[in-house]
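Thread amino acids onto this structure.
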């Protein structure tokens, strides 16, 4: 999680804040505080929820800590915009600048508003990407036969293209390996929705307003009708699909009715393009610089279920050895 937090915030807030230990700990814990706080607030009737939230949860205190860290960045943005307008030499290309650029009014330039948004984006980015990276790293250690072809692809692409967005798109084997790691580690359900008005399907089944529905993502991903040998890990399953004429629709960021890692339709995860490139960049660095294995060449540790989510083991260890 610390690796993902630092990497993510290198883009969100830049140096040196992304490496600040207190800022890291704040973002790592904020998601936990939010979900625990939500459970506490839901114990109370509606009219009391706005009043008990600030008193019984840790969220207000976390926001104050975020304001302390973000304030210098916001003040620098305001100073530069007053002096230069919207653009200036060496303008940071980070989340703070993007929030200022897209703000629909000066009230959204307040430090607390910016701090809350930075925390909120971190909620969406850190824990999901950490789980994805951990699943992929475990599979890299559990299936060492994939390391050589992955490393060969990475070295070849970087030698030809360098470290660019285009080069990331050309790493099809690496993308397939990540996709397969996510296919077999998806949660029980996805795209949870509440029906706001009575809805009748084409087969005549009617669901009344208030019904909660979801996609059975885990069963879909592990259905042999959708994937040959669905219960087997096949690291290059998706990179082999171009030979079958299906490669384009099986890119990681693409939408498919049998792959729900990022959802579907207009409400699909908007941060998936960033997340995929971030995952690739971290794994490329690991492949180029380290050998990975489990202690005593042990098997892949079992995942565990928590509230409908399939989570990688929190206690397993992976050994890293610097490549010579």
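Threaded sequence (324 positions):
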């Amino acid at each position: 999680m610390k690796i993902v937090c630092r990497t993510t915030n290198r883009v969100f807030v830049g140096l040196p804040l992304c490496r600040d230990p207190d800022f890291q700990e704040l973002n790592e814990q904020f998601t936990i505080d939010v979900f625990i706080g939500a459970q506490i607030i839901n114990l109370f009737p509606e009219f009391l929820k706005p009043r008990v939230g600030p008193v019984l949860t840790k969220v207000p205190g976390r926001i104050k800590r975020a304001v302390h860290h973000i304030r210098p960045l916001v003040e620098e943005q305001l100073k530069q915009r007053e002096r230069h307008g919207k653009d200036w030499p060496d303008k940071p290309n980070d989340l703070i600048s993007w929030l200022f650029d897209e703000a629909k009014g000066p009230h959204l330039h307040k430090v607390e508003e910016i701090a809350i948004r930075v925390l909120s984006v971190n909620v969406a980015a850190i824990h999901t990407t950490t789980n994805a990276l951990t699943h992929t790293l475990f599979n890299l250690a559990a299936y060492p036969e994939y390391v050589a072809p992955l490393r060969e692809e990475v070295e070849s692409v970087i030698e030809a293209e360098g470290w660019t967005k285009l080069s990331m798109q050309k790493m099809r084997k690496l993308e397939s390996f990540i996709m397969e790691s996510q296919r077999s580690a998806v949660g029980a359900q996805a795209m949870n929705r509440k029906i706001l008005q009575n809805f009748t399907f084409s087969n005549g089944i009617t669901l009344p307003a208030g019904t909660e529905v979801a996609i059975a993502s885990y069963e879909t991903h592990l259905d042999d009708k959708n994937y040959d040998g669905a219960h087997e890990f096949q690291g290059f399953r998706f990179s082999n699909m171009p030979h079958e004429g299906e490669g384009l629709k099986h890119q990681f960021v693409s939408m498919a009715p049998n792959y729900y890692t990022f959802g579907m339709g207009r409400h699909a995860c908007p941060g998936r393009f960033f997340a995929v490139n971030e995952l690739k960049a971290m794994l490329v660095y690991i492949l180029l610089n380290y050998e990975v294995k489990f202690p005593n060449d042990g098997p892949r540790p079992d995942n565990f279920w928590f509230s409908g989510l399939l989570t990688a083991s929190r206690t397993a260890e992976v050994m890293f050895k610097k490549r010579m």
